[in-house]
Structures are given as structure tokens and as C-alpha cells.
Design brief:
It is built from eight helices and three strands; from the N terminus they run ααβαβαααβαα. By secondary structure, the protein is mainly alpha-helical. The longest helix has 18 residues. InterPro entries: CFAP46.
Length: 154
């Protein structure tokens, strides 16, 4: 919310989505957000692809999405318990596709042009720092997505 307020006048007038703990988006809502966005930011718990039905994602055309930022792979005791319950019904192949490298390939094949994502599990605080740095770099300084990712790597 702090970042939305800070950059509200610059770029966020056209932003839409789900913020905070409002509710869990439905599959239809995920599809609508993904197919009509030019940029997509996910800042949440566990793996992004665990929130979206993969068989529906593969059929989506996400070519309008020029940049996708996935600040995922955060684990809490509650999110881990939810994932264990959810993973019981998934095959080992389906679980493998949700991993970071496989997710990047799948999203690229679905049409996402640029993707920045975590490669391993992290904390909410570390992702908050990344989101702050990303926002500052992209919106205030005016770096490109590539320059911003390179800056984060350092």
C-alpha cells in the first residue's frame, strides 16, 4: 500500500488487482488480470503457479504482458500447511512445473516477454526490500527492467 501511495500520481492510476488480504482471486479473475495487463506484479506466498490452474495457463494468450515480476517463494507455517494439503492432489510432474525455472519457461511460452522472479525461497522482509528497490528504480530513477534486475543482482 505504501508503494501504491508513493507512486500513485506517476504510474499507478491504471493499476488494478487484488491488494492485501482482501480475498483469494478466482481462476477467472487470475485469467482476466493476466490476459489484459501490460505488466504484472505478484507479491505473495509460496509459488505463483500454485495459485493458477496450469492447464488453463497454458491455453492463455499473455502476449500483452511485457513485464512480469514474481516476488513469490515466501513461506510461512500457514502457507506451508496449505501447500501440503494442495500438493497431495498434484502429480510430481505438476509440482515440478511450478518450480522457478520451469515456471519461467511456461510463462515465456504463454507469451510473457520479460520475467523477473525469485529463484529460491525468501522472507517477506527481503521481498519487501526487493519491491521497494524495484519501484524506486523503475518509477523514480527511470531505469529499464533489465537495468533494474541487474541493479538488484548487485
Amino acid at each position: 500500500k505504501e508503494i501504491l501511495e508513493k507512486y500513485h500520481d506517476l504510474f499507478t492510476l491504471q493499476w488494478e488487482g487484488v491488494i492485501g488480504k482482501m480475498y483469494v482471486p478466482s481462476q477467472a479473475e487470475w485469467e482476466q488480470l493476466l490476459t489484459k495487463c501490460s505488466a504484472f506484479l505478484f507479491y505473495g506466498m509460496e509459488r505463483f503457479l500454485s495459485h493458477v490452474l496450469l492447464n488453463r495457463l497454458v491455453a492463455m494468450n499473455i502476449t500483452k504482458c511485457h513485464l512480469m515480476i514474481l516476488l513469490d517463494l515466501v513461506r510461512s507455517k500457514q502457507s506451508y500447511q496449505r501447500m501440503i494439503k494442495s500438493n497431495v492432489h498434484k502429480s510430481s510432474l505438476l509440482l515440478a512445473i511450478e518450480r522457478p525455472t520451469e515456471a519461467a519457461m511456461l510463462l515465456s511460452l504463454a507469451g510473457v516477454r520479460s520475467l523477473a522472479a525469485n529463484q529460491w525461497y525468501t522472507t517477506l522482509q527481503e521481498n519487501a526490500g526487493r519491491l521497494h528497490t524495484l519501484s524506486e528504480s523503475l518509477f523514480s530513477i527511470g531505469r529499464t527492467a533489465g537495468q533494474t534486475v541487474r541493479f538488484l543482482q548487485k
